[in-house]
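Notebook entry, structure prediction.
Reason for the run: the old model in the group folder had no record of what sequence produced it. Starting over properly, with the input documented here first.
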Amino acid sequence: MERHTVRFTICNHFCLRSCDWNIAVSVSRGNDRVGRLALFFGLFLLFWLVLIHLPTQSFLPELDRSWQGVLSYFVYKGLQFGKDTIFTYGPLGYITADTYSGYLLASRIGFDVVLKGVFALLMAALALRLRPVLRWWLAVNIVFFSAVSADAVYLFAIALSACFVIECQLSPGLALGAGVLFALVSLTKFSFFLLCVASLLIIVAYALSRRKWLRASGLAMTYLVCLLSFWCLAGQQVSGFLPFLRGACEVTSGYAEAMSINESRPVFWSGFGALLLGGGLFIGLAYGSKDKGRNLAMLIVLCVSLFVAWKEGFVRADHCHIYTLFAFLLFAEPAAWAVFQPPGKHGRLLLGMTLIALLSPYVFLFLIRPEYFAELLPRVRDRIVENGAAFVHPSDFRAALEGTLSRVKEQNALPTIKRLIGQASVDVFGDEQAIALLNDLNYRPRPVFQGYSAYTPFLVACNRSFYLGPTAPAFVILKYQTVDDRFAAEDDAGALEVILRDYEPVATEKEYMLWKRKAESPPPAPRRLLRKGTGAWGDPVPLLPDQCLVWIEVDIGNTWLGKLREFLYKPAKITMTLQMVDHQTQHYRLVRPLARSGFMVNPALRNLSDLLEAYRNPGKGNASSLTLDVNDSARLLYGKKYHYRIYSVGVN
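New structure, fully documented this time:
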């Protein structure tokens, strides 16, 4: 009896201990779940508040502020993208702009809040899957670097969404969300569209390799249906979607030639080094994981995104663009640990690679611009304060924007020009379209509305046809300007030729010259070929300075090595030297697509003064010869010879 009692007591004791342990484990797991949930929502709110990008910049007659501000005006007026306007931004591009021009403020903020909320969810979910050190490293990078490169945020969000879809084996709910997100983002900027399409193709190929036919087709159909739906909701006609893609492809195809800015050698090697380290880390993490097929698909997504960030950052390598590459790497490098989930056997090696790759963007940024880091904290603080104040007091935020816009309108008023134009239609030749909207004019833009962007024969022909057609504006506000050391007459040369023939100057105000369409203009006379030939680098080409109006077209071929460099990086610079009749020498950057479509070389219209002088003293501002040259190291990238044609132009 006692033995049984003792045995029962011992068993009971162990049962109670076991029960207590199970309860403790359950409570611990419950507390851990609550803690992780609180951490998730905390990170989500922090990321959301930082990522929201309100249009707080003033609408000014400057290059970037102008195109950002008129995007919302185009949508407000119902202009058709691809027909009425041709640009790399689509009908939803205005939601990425940070300039307020007085149009579509509510939808601009609404779209941004929703999109950035989705981005914040993705990033918070990613952060929870990382080790604590990498988690907080990622959080710090998102908080501090998302404010300096909005494009890097979009590129990272697209790549992250694609990786989540691949990892979840195209889960129906996640695939549906990704299709909607990709469709919305695709209509903002053409580079985002290309990355979304590339990501979808990679996802579909992976799904087909796993025999998930239905899920792959469902994702593709979701994307296409949502893409066309958002297109129509933005006021666009379905028939205009393909012309939009054609126009955006044209602008993109000439971008590397026309819009490149060469960086210094330290900047180049900093960016190239960061690119190699980031790509090497992605490959190392993917190689160390078990599921090779899945990780290969995600690796391709990340590498394509990295390549897009590299091209965007270093084709036009100014301080605004190069941050795209570094910010993307700072987001993607810690994220790669959660994406690939490498095993622990190569942990030390991969952690070492990660440490080097993560530190390199900071080092390179410091070498490029040491004062940059001193600006980070004030920039983030201002972003959080502005966003918080805007949501707490939305009416005050809008009133502040309207007040700033009113002051800018007063500062940029053109009363004389406005009185002469009245309610008639007007275009702005140059890149300061803001001046038309700031004066409340009836702005009717040509398709490629910023002159420096009309840099392929197709784009030049679109603008020329606009001025020759029935919808040509009654007036043109002309500010003779260019970018990046170009010869000003290169830009939008076809439209400029028509303006000089069919319009006449009537007023000048604040460096803006108003041209009025003539009551009657003769039909354009065909250009008459004066001479054609073959030129060599460094040899002058005579320009017939006795001819008043001379047009030149130059065809410059490139070798396979030049084409490869252009694809991976950007073309080498071509210098054009004009020898004037008064023996002055002028140096400019020649853009190959613009040279192929042609431009007026005599009179040599270098600035507004030359344009006015050409009317007063024809022939005085002519050039006697033109010389094209490249650096010795770049001659392997182009043909040894180029072909040119010189015409006389029939401008009355």
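Summary: DSSP finds 23 helices and 13 strands in the chain.
The old model has been moved to the deprecated folder.
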